[in-house]
Design a protein that fits this description.
It is built from 2 helices and 25 strands. It is mainly β and 305 residues long. The protein has 3 domains: 30 residues, no CATH class; 89 residues, Immunoglobulin-like; 161 residues, no CATH class. The strands form 7 sheets. Strands 15, 16, 17, 19, 20, 22 and 24 form a 7-stranded mixed beta sheet that branches. A 5-stranded mixed beta sheet has the order 14-25-23-21-18, with no helix packed on it. The N and C termini lie far apart (87 Å). 32% of the residues are buried.
Length: 305
């Protein structure tokens, strides 16, 4: 054997044989060496309770073999994000919610890429103390808001996992013309409103039910900054319909970015409204008006604000 060299994953060997009796014989042999498989590091979910700080969504243990780990946030556990969305940075989040962290190994010259994998991460709402406030006036009244309303209980982690959010948001039309909402539906048929867009008038009015592909979904909560695109003076939320959930929750900073100065809630004695700590933070709302209830029924129902 006289010579070998490596060319594009192939090794070519040239060798010759000869004896005293026969003439020299020469043969070239090409051997193909395929790429090896990479091995991903271990990725585990950092499930936790909301504490107002930004933290990595996953913990990565060990190192990838044959390449580098890359990550991206997706919208569900079945559809991988586009290739250009992956980076080497581990995603981090602050707000409560369900997140889908996708990861893969990008192989080097001698290793294959892995198929993407996904880890579901849940940041649950922080449980706070209940606080009751009775508005002034017989058939409904106003509640001045010079500071954030007192904290109220939020769903516990077990309540959250009973009804996981659906795979992705969908634009739906509210019962009132000119109002559209982006929602995430749950297994029980309820919806979390993640964004509200109005027609720019003086008053924005929405109901506690949104329609998606002909199916009505009762609203169970309004997400952080869901009213940030609303540029009106007053917001009316009508929760009197019989199909609405018994409790409707407003998450921290629900109205942040909104120009509205007045919030009106139209309820019945069988409905509860819960404001998470800081639900009005970052908003210009100075007055909350409750209609459809008298003082007696408000006290007896243990309503929280």
């Amino acid at each position: 054997m006289q010579l070998y060299h490596d060319r594009d994953g192939q090794i070519t060997e040239a060798f010759s044989l000869h004896t005293g009796t026969y003439a020299q014989a020469t043969k070239e042999v090409t051997v193909t060496i395929g790429k090896a498989n990479t091995v991903a590091a271990t990725v585990t979910a950092n499930n936790r309770t909301y504490d107002g700080t930004e933290k990595p969504l996953v913990t990565v243990t060990g190192e990838a073999t044959g390449g580098e780990m890359q990550y991206a946030l997706g919208t569900n556990v079945t559809t991988a994000p586009a290739e250009n969305l992956y980076t080497t940075s581990i995603p981090a989040k602050t707000e409560a919610g369900i997140y889908y962290v996708w990861y893969k190994v990008v192989g080097d010259a001698n290793h294959n890429d892995t198929e993407p994998g996904c880890v579901e991460v849940n940041i649950v709402q922080k449980e706070t103390e209940k606080h009751d406030t009775t508005p002034s006036g017989g058939g409904g009244g106003s509640l001045p808001q010079t500071t954030d309303p007192a904290p109220a209980p939020n769903p516990t982690p077990s309540e959250t996992t009973e009804h996981p959010a659906a795979t992705e948001s969908t634009i739906t039309q509210d019962a009132f013309t000119g109002v559209s909402e982006t929602i995430e539906t749950s297994a029980d048929g309820t919806a979390v409103v993640t964004s509200v867009a109005g027609n720019g008038g003086k008053t924005l009015r929405i109901t506690g039910t949104v329609s998606q592909n002909g199916t009505n979904h009762p609203v169970s909560s309004f997400a952080t900054k869901s009213f940030s695109n609303v540029d009106v003076k007053s917001i009316i939320i009508d929760l009197k319909a019989s199909g609405n959930p018994q409790t409707v929750t407003f998450m921290p900073r629900t109205f942040k970015g909104s120009e509205a100065k007045k919030l009106t809630l139209r309820l019945t004695s069988s409905r509860q409204v819960k404001f998470s700590s800081g639900a009005l933070s970052g908003s210009k709302i100075k007055k909350v008006v409750v209609s459809g209830l008298n003082k007696r029924s408000l006290r007896e129902s243990g309503r929280s604000w």
